[in-house]
Amino acid sequence: MNIIVTANYEVLSETAANRIAEVIKNKPNAVLGLATGSTPIGLYKKLVTYNKENLIDFSRVTTFNLDEYIGIPASHTQSYRYFMDYHLFNHINIDYQKTHVPNGMAKDIQAECEAYDEMLRGHGGIDIQVLGIGNNGHIGFNEPGSALTVGTHVTELAQGTIEANSRFFSTREEVPTQAITMGIGDIMKAREVILLASGITKADIISRLLEDKIDTYIPASLLQAHPHVTVIVDQLAGQLI
Ligand code: PGA
Fold first, then answer.
1. Parallel, antiparallel, or unpaired for β 153-156 and 178-181?
2. Residue 136 bears catalytic tag
3. How far apart are CA 141 and CA 122, in angstroms?
4. What is the pLDDT of residue 164?
5. Which residues have CB under 6 Å of ligand 1?
6. Which residue among the candidates 14, 51, 127, 138 is catalytic per the annotation?
7. Which end of the chain is more exposed for a tag (fewer CB within 10 A), N or C?
């Protein structure tokens, strides 16, 4: 695992955006794996700027998002589809049909999961996967546990995740408790991974992630076995390493 400690969140976001720009430059029809959460917002802002400055052309790019809540529609302001449209897709020259987010309102959720993996395979897999990390070490919504699932699946959100996410909803009861998430196998198959973490609250999990062992109770630690991972942190998130 490579680790880059940047001076601050701005530089972290720029470092990640520059790597994505490079990937698209080398492969204009690249497949990006994208994440939601507070951490990649700065990255998406940079990508929008680069697109406006004609430094990145998204016209042939395809994207797959990691996850989506079950039970809230795409039009809901807290859905991950809404997040992606708001922060990125509405502002770049991407073909909207090439942007994929699991459908958390699908009638047959199991079929939706299978179709998502099938579509991923059909596109030849992910060239570069962007990840955040939960305080509990989750990636996507692959929560800590004694076993981790390989493919896209339904997951019950951990209590801590529900609490962390409740800041975006008016009441705790509104926070979805289930999600569709790409599995650990989907993430591990990406040809390259960049994992971003910012702020003091991530310092502990980042130091644990970098220990030389794999622990299913820290799902991100599986990335130790991936051949091309770069962890990009700011000073605060990197302060215990
Ligand atoms: P955050 O979420 O970027 O909002 O900290 C990360 C995550 O839970 O994966």
1. antiparallel
2. yes
3. 23
4. 87
5. 37-39, 132-134, 138
6. 138
7. C
